[in-house]
From TrEMBL:
Species name: Oryza nivara (Indian wild rice)
Transmembrane segments: none
Swiss-Prot/TrEMBL catalytic activity: AMP + ATP = 2 ADP
Record-given protein name: adenylate kinase
Residue spans of biased composition, Low complexity class: 1-21
Alphabetized UniProt keyword annotations: Kinase, Nucleotide-binding, Transferase
InterPro entries tied to this protein: Adenyl_kin_sub, Adenylat/UMP-CMP_kin, Adenylat_kinase_CS, ADK_active_lid_dom_sf, Chloroplast_ADK, DUF1995, P-loop_NTPase
Length: 554
């Protein structure tokens, strides 16, 4: 299935920024759900983010139409009925992915969230190999040569495991099986069928790099990567070994075998697939952005932020600088920022959280009172926006300013809209008082601008500057996106830098296609935010380790 060919730049294509949202729903089963399909014709719809290896294909029935939670007894009763139904019929999930696609990480998160029994054919086979059984010896021979183990070797083990009491009680997540058409048909003949079928897709070059650079610590069993996750010290580095099946030739062989078998399996479960694209939307220089592009970024931000909050992060910030959210560009739209805040607020309100949305007030006194231009009128806009039909505003969502006095005991979390310093005034003192009063409740900054601004006689630049900068840096970035241009310009778009918690920073190059379309190609990943030099070097690789390139992107 291909995505739409381009993003319209006409006003008609971009819906009004204050249009009423529909009933807010979240996926019923998508631990790392993909954002909606953005306009792009150059990439397959089932292509997942290379770094995240996120769910790219899920069951159309996996996300039941469930109304917002926390808005009334009727919703809670519905959830109770759904829970009872799930108890009667445990969830059954299959997941498929190439070597190093991130399948293990996804399985762990799904098991933690839904309590399913994880059944890995790899674990079953390794148990046989370590036990030295006849089946184990045969399996080891195939595995050492980078080949998949024949169907009959694993079928009996899988079926036996599925029949055990814990699986019948809790449901199952079947990892790595079926891997061929024959295995899939064998399960079909025994009436063993999943409710959901998940496919992970990652480009071959990324998979090969992950495998070939992977190293194993034989003492601890910990996995390292020579570039992405190097060992802590020389002692650990000295004892690392390469797995026998992680050579370039064997990885290529495994990938080809996986592709052949995957193509044979997917038709059996085609009725369960709802394929989606996950990547970078194209035509981001078309203004105003289409509704599809805006919705893509809203959901991308929402998913990352929810994961960070679920992981007990309490001081978070979102930095998103698409053209309509970049105040340094003349196409900045306050309505886009308000829509983003609304999506975040309603999502947490759906969980029964009481969210306080805060906008800093006027700074200064008398005739010198003022507010940053980016925030002018935002409080009024919040008041007149449509917050849906469930009465969220005034109950689960309330508005306030920035300061300790705005923190009420019934508030569960706080979203601060673009808090920023202004010439002669600093918002950080009020923010610190507010976060101190909030305690361990989440405080989320949306597009903060907390760098020091000049003040009278330079006082603001010197007194307490280190403490202010340290406080500003205490907020952990849960989402970051910005387009990359040549330094000093906003055209053409050279690429993008993206990070969505808990994944790495990803650098993409924008590529023009012969047919007039464009696409974004992943260049490199970083655990920490890359420096300008590192970004430049990702676009222009160094010839050797000692050669450095001048910073050319910003």
């Amino acid at each position: 299935m291909a995505a739409s060919s381009s993003s319209s730049s006409s006003p008609a294509a971009a819906s009004a920024p204050f249009a009423a949202p529909g009933p807010h729903r979240r996926p019923g089963l998508a631990l790392r759900p993909s954002p909606p399909t953005p306009p792009s014709s150059s990439l397959s719809c089932c292509r997942a983010s290379p770094a995240a290896a996120a769910v790219s294909s899920v069951s159309a029935t996996a996300a039941p139409n469930r109304g917002p939670r926390g808005m009334g007894l009727r919703c809670r009763a519905s959830e109770g009925a759904a829970a009872a139904a799930r108890k009667e019929a445990p969830l059954k999930v299959m997941i498929s992915g190439a070597p190093a696609s991130g399948k293990g990480t996804q399985c762990r998160m799904i098991v933690e969230k839904y309590g399913l029994v994880h059944i890995s054919t790899g674990d079953l086979l390794r148990a046989e190999v370590s036990s030295g059984t006849e089946i184990g010896k045969k399996a080891k021979e195939y595995m050492d040569n980078g080949m998949l183990v024949p169907d009959q070797v694993v079928t009996d083990m899988v079926v036996s495991r599925l029949s055990q009491p814990d699986v019948r009680e809790r449901g199952w997540l079947l990892d790595g099986y079926p891997r061929s058409y024959a295995q899939a048909q064998s399960l079909e003949s025994m009436k063993i069928r999943p409710d959901i079928f998940i496919v992970l897709e990652v480009p071959d070059d990324i998979l090969i790099d992950r495998c070939v650079g992977r190293r194993l610590d034989p003492e601890t069993g910990k996995i390292y990567h020579i570039k992405n996750f190097p060992p802590e010290n020389d002692e650990v580095s000295a004892r690392l070994v390469t797995r026998s099946d992680d050579t370039f030739e064997k990885v290529k062989s495994r990938l080809e075998t996986y592709k052949q078998n995957s193509e044979a399996v997917i038709p059996t479960y085609s009725d369960l697939l709802n394929q989606e694209f996950r990547g970078i939307p194209t035509r981001l220089n078309n203004i105003p952005h289409s509704r599809e592009i805006r919705k893509y970024f809203y959901n991308d931000v929402l998913v990352a932020t929810r994961h960070a909050v679920e992981d007990k992060k309490t001081r978070l910030q979102i930095d998103i600088n698409i053209p309509e959210l970049n105040p340094e560009m003349d196409v900045y739209r306050i309505g886009t920022l308000m829509e983003l805040v609304r999506e975040l607020s309603l999502s947490f309100a759906d969980d029964g959280k009481r969210v306080k949305v805060c906008v800093q007030g006027s700074m200064g006194q008398g005739a010198f009172a003022g507010i940053p231009l980016q925030l002018a009128g935002t409080r009024k806009i919040l008041e007149i926006m449509d917050w849906g039909e469930y009465g969220a505003k005034g109950t689960f969502i309330n508005f306030g300013a920035v300061g300790a006095s705005e923190v009420d005991k019934e508030d569960d979390m706080f979203i601060l809209i673009a808090p920023q310093n202004a010439v002669g005034n600093c918002i950080i003192d009020d923010m610190k008082a507010m976060t101190d009063a909030a305690g361990d409740r989440p405080v989320i900054l949306v597009n903060p601008r907390l760098k020091d601004m000049p003040g009278s006689s330079g006082v603001m630049q010197t007194m307490g500057r280190d403490m202010r900068l340290k406080y500003a840096a205490s907020f952990e970035t849960c989402y970051s996106f910005r387009l990359l241009f040549y330094a000093g310009s906003f055209y053409p778009i050279m690429g993008a830098l993206r990070m969505a918690y808990p994944n790495k920073y990803e650098i993409y190059r924008r590529v023009d296609e012969p047919n007039g379309q464009e696409r974004y190609v992943l260049l490199e990943e970083f655990v920490e935010k890359p420096t300008p030099d590192e970004i430049t070097n990702a676009f222009r690789p160094r010839k050797n380790e000692n050669e450095k390139s001048a910073s050319g992107f910003w």
